[in-house]
Amino acid sequence: MGESDRYQEYKNVKRHRFSLGQDGNALMGLFTLNVIFFLILLTVQVAYFFYQQTPELYNAQVVQWFELPASLTKLSERPWTLLTYMFSDTGSQLIRIISNMLWLWAFGYILQEMTGNDKIISIYIYGGLLGGIFFIAANYLIPPIHAQVNSSALLGANAATMAVAMATTSLSPNHKFFTQIRGGIPIWVLMAIYIIIDLVGVSSYNAAYSLSHIGGALAGFLFVVLMRKGWDGSVWMNNLYDWFINLFNPNKKNGKSNTKNKIFYNTGNRSPYSKKAIITQQRVDEILDKINQRGYQFLTDEEKQILKKAADEDL
User: Fold this and answer.
1) Which of 6, 26, 171, 180 is most open to solvent, judged by the fewest CB atoms within 10 Å of its CB?
2) How far apart are CA 182 and CA 39, in angstroms?
3) How many domains does the chain have?
4) pLDDT digits (tens, 9 = 90+) for 297-307
5) Within a domain: residue 5?
């Protein structure tokens, strides 16, 4: 039995799931960003309407700074919209943001259980970026809609959510939910329903919107393919985030000792560079939380040994 098998066996007994209010829950982080952007735009929109300003003026003065323009000229003037558009929805799109958040929760919760907590934001961003690129390319390359390139813009989490859904389905297409209903429903069925609903929902717009969602799905699929080949596209994003956060962490800068080393390790008469792990329930729980956050492959050899001993001792 390999170490990863031991972990799976141990995890079946003590399964750690992310609760909605748990610190560091990346899925809740995505929810929060989407809701914050929505409330900001809604508040400004209400203020505009209170002063009897036209919707056109609101879009021209406010929304354009959040939405992704199809025009490369406009994009060069506000490049940040390649990121902001995937978190933004206006007050008139309440049904759309609710729908996107429900689908994001349905697939994102399963993705967290499969891969840990550190990949969902990366997949979401990759999906939004590739979806935006597809949207811009479609407006330039498809003749019937090229005439609208200066007025067309993209807003909403559809492409990014589609990436999370496709990544989850690609990882385990036969994963089942609602197991109490005739043995469960495979996740690929949920994905098919999502695609149908999504395509019907954008049928009234031009083809560029549909292609942006396809681009998001492709990003999620490619992420899984490359991860299986040994390249994890989330690593550099997480390292960049950790580096940025540690810029404001004085303990990290000064190289102060880790508190866990003082609490969980007893060097005794041993060499100061040799540490003997004390296996406690708290220590095991921390390791399981780390697996949920980042995945089993990010454990150190020492942490894997602790988990192995815990499984052997049935701690």
Assistant:
1) 180
2) 41
3) 2
4) 667 777 777 87
5) no
